[in-house]
Amino acid sequence: MKARKLLMIPGPIEFEPAVLQAMGMATTSHVAPNFIETFGNSLELMRTVWKSPKGQPFIVAGTGTLAMDMAAANLIERGDNVLVISSGYFGKRFKDILDCYGANTTILEAHLGENLSLKIIEQELKIKQYKALTITHVDTSTGIIVDPKPIAKLAKKYNTITIVDGVCSVAGEELQQDEWGLDVVLTASQKAIGVPPGLALLMVSEKAMQVWKNRKTPVPNYYADWNNWLPIMRAYEERKPSYFGTPAVNLVVALETSLKIICNEGMDKRILRHQQLAKAFRASLSALNLTILPKTTAIAANTLTAVYYPEGIDGAAINAKMSESDVIIAGGLLPAIKATYFRIGHMGSVSANDLLAVLGALERALSQLGHPFELGKGLQTFQMELLNTNQ
Ligand code: PMP
To answer: Which helix (DSSP H) or strand (DSSP E) does residue 331 occupy?
Structure first.
């Protein structure tokens, strides 16, 4: 029997074997010609994935939180008004980071399971001049997706820059940075980008780079300061050696491998795969008499699903039984309701087979714990959905 566990949490995810092999190569110098080429290629490939031909990409060792920190440190100055549009835990994190840099932050929080209306956002933008607003494209704590496109339109109307936390969306959800007018779209390597944890990735618009250049005060953070990183990114793109902080060489090699896999699949095809698998999975959960956290499927993410445990059934026991079946899922994250729901990641190289394995294990766990449903109904629903979508 294979002792392999299937990692179905919303990051880190299951990685492609080629990406893991790339991680294991003999580490080269960060100024070796082959690595300069790899770094330069990775920056260029990011523009394709972000759909941002004009953007300035950054690849820095760190996590998604560093990417958020970098956006805040470089674009916000003490006293700047910033609007945080929150649909869960990670919206609040953005507020905490912005507060660290002395921003005058207003947070608009959606009701649990819902999104904020454009009307409420516009009302707030009318009250005062906001320098920036932040959006969590997919909040991993709630599995809710926010459409950044109409919000970016509003932001443009009110002369506000748009910063998107795309940690749980980039390379898994539809995103067109330049077309939609998003100023910063940031992510981390361990999610739909498909590389083990350790890289902070950002794409910054020309407008946001100008906002940064026009700062009146120095960036109050040494590691995050784009003054240190911009020359490095430029040098790698020009295929020239450079140094500020030693890059995570093996992770960058893995990044190039993964970005090539993503671009070979094609962005449109990749996004459609995520949408079709997520839709089929949600239908299957509903067939198992389970309720998802987002109140409508229209605002349910395609990269993960947050699901309530059935009433009267011990959630920890479900997770434990899934784990005994070698399927690893995540518990809740929102502090107020943490123990009432669980999360399943389905992003990156996720396949129908992975989700069939999840549903099989989930059905067995629910059946053993006495949840009323028709055994096989979730699997059957998933199969029917697949047959309808050619996955
Ligand atoms: N934003 C979102 C939406 C996330 O899902 C995460 C990680 N789960 C983060 C930010 C923070 O990323 P990291 O854990 O890599 O710092």
So the answer is: strand 330-331
CATH of residue 98's domain is 3.40.640.10
Contact 191, 13 (CB under 8 A): yes
Measured by CA distance, the residue closest to atom 12 of ligand 1 is 64
Pocket-forming residues, ligand 1, beta carbon under 6 Å:
11, 63-65, 90, 136, 139-140, 165, 167-168, 188
Chain segment 277-328, per-residue pLDDT in tens:
999 999 999 999 999 999 999 999 999 999 999 999 999 999 999 999 999 9
State the DSSP H helix or E strand holding residue 327, giving kind and residue range, or none if neither. Answer: strand 327-328
Alpha-carbon distances of 22 from 251, 257, 260, 349, 382, rounded to whole Å: 8, 7, 12, 16, 34
DSSP for 66-123? HHHHHHHHHH--TT-EEEEEESSHHHHHHHHHHHHTT-EEEEEEPPTT----HHHHHH
Q: Are residues 78 and 115 in the same domain?
A: yes
Q: Are residues 142 and 288 in the same domain?
A: no
**Atom number, ligand 1, closest to the C-alpha of residue 140:** 5
| Range(s) of the domain holding residue 338 | 6-11+266-389
- Digit-coded pLDDT (tens) for 48-89: 999 999 999 999 999 999 999 999 999 999 999 999 999 999
Number of domains comprising the chain: 2
Greatest pairwise CA separation for the chain in angstroms: 64
Q: Does residue 107 share a domain with residue 159?
A: yes
Based on the fold, state whether residues 219 and 271 are members of the same structural domain. Answer: no
Ligand 1 centre to CA of 31 (Å) is: 30
Strand pairing report for 330-331 and 161-165: unpaired
Report which secondary-structure segment, H or E, holds 165.
strand 161-165
Please give the model's pTM, rounded to 2 decimal places. Answer: 0.98
